Amino acid sequence: MERDESPTEACRRELAEEIGLDLPPGELLGVDWRPARSAGRPARFRFVFDMGEHDADALRIELQRSELSAWRWAHRDEALTVLKPDTAALLTARRGATGYLEHR
């Protein structure tokens, strides 16, 4: 996230920068916290948003090659087998709605 940028704003900006899509993030599915790897480094948070269902033929993906080398569409069950294990665990461990507030 950039300075003074909320998680939803960062998600939308990163999507536009890395795959060329301007989509508003939907419901927050989960938050993952990781402690700092070493002294002087901050802890890390990962916010996972529901981005909805889209017509694959209607969206034009343009990768930012310095960040990503490939992409593909996957249904949820298939995605869980190709995601990093900690991301898949975050999505499958979700129980009910997740609360989320942005304070400005």
What does this structure look like?
- By secondary structure, the protein is of the alpha+beta class.
- It has a single domain (7-92), classed as Nucleoside Triphosphate Pyrophosphohydrolase, CATH 3.90.79.
- 27% of the residues lie in helices and 12% in strands.
- It contains 3 helices and 2 strands.
- The chain has helices at 7-19, 76-82, 85-92; strands at residues 28-34, 44-49.
- Strands 1-2 form a two-stranded antiparallel sheet.
- Helix 2 packs antiparallel against helix 3.
- The chain is globular.
- 2% of the residues are buried.
Task: Report the structural category.
Answer: alpha+beta
Q: Do you know the CATH architecture?
A: Alpha-Beta Complex
Q: What global shape is seen? A: globular
- CATH names the topology as Nucleoside Triphosphate Pyrophosphohydrolase
Largest sheet: 2 strands, antiparallel
Q: What's the average pLDDT?
A: 83
The CATH superfamily bears the name: Nucleoside Triphosphate Pyrophosphohydrolase
Which residue ranges are poorly predicted, with pLDDT under 50 across at least 5 consecutive positions? 99-104
Question: Which CATH first-tier class would you pick?
Answer: Alpha Beta
Strand neighbour order, sheet with most strands = 1-2
> In which range does the helix fraction lie?
25-40%
The domain tally reads 1
How large a portion of the residues is in β-strands, by DSSP E?
5-15%
How many individual β-strands? 2
Total of DSSP H or I helical runs spanning 4+ residues: 3
Helix and strand run: HEEHH
Any idea what the radius of gyration is? 15 Å
